[in-house]
Amino acid sequence: MERGMSLRELARRLELSASALSQIETGKNRPNVETLYMIVAELGLSLDDLVFRRKRGAADDSDEAGPDSASAGERHGPRSRATDGPLQHGEDRPSIQLDSGVTWERLTAEHDPEGDFFTSVYEPGGASSRDSHLIVHSGREYHLLLKGRLTVSIGFETYELKAGDSISFASTEPHRLFNPGDTPAETVTFVMGRRQDDRRNLAFNEGSQDD
User: Could you give the number of structural domains in the chain?
Assistant: First the structure.
């Protein structure tokens, strides 16, 4: 509404059905990583705007998202601990669960203009994008695999990671991360420069701070 765009028009731009987009909006379905990225990019929002925003006027220590919050993915927190400054407590990490079998947890307490720092858990068969589709965006990313196995496709190359392995690459290269194992795979991830040359991006911060 703020952008004068109907749900049908947004669905058309995203190449989704209006029904599918409506179900994401109302929380009946979860988007996958790729779809969430496309929604954020098309609307020029951040993940905080789309997913973590709570009802205006809600108490800072409330754990529930308000009824006017967006419903993309399953949302958790964050609980405010203003006196802790840059410290992000593990039990209070903002997190998103997506339908592609991936959970993200933000590791920074507040907006970091230099990049996004988070953990990712890929359930068995979980992937960063649907089917075998590879995605691209601005920036450079770094992944350290803590547990499990992870297959990383970058362009025409595929790499198999085991616990303790790490990988980095330009996010402008088509890429996809996938868990081929039968146990969850957990990574620590840092994406640098995602917002330097692409205002419409996947970010855990307030979009207005990048203007």
Answer: 1
Q: What's the CATH code of the domain at 101?
A: 2.60.120.10
pTM score: 0.68
Tell me the per-residue pLDDT of 6-32, one tens digit each, with 9 for 90 and over.
999 999 998 889 999 998 888 888 777
**Is there a domain that residue 99 lies in?**
yes
Is residue 131, in this structure, part of any structural domain at all?
Answer: yes
* Alpha carbon distance 115, 107 (integer Å): 11
Residue 89's contacts (CB-CB under 8 Å, 6 or more residues apart) are: 81
Residue 175 lies in a domain: yes
**Which sign, positive or negative, has the C-alpha torsion 11, 204, 140, 127?**
negative
Cα distance between the two ends of the chain: 21
Give per-residue pLDDT as tens, 26-48.
888 877 777 777 787 788 776 66
Instruction: Give the separation between CA 126 and CA 56, rounded to whole angstroms.
Output: 34
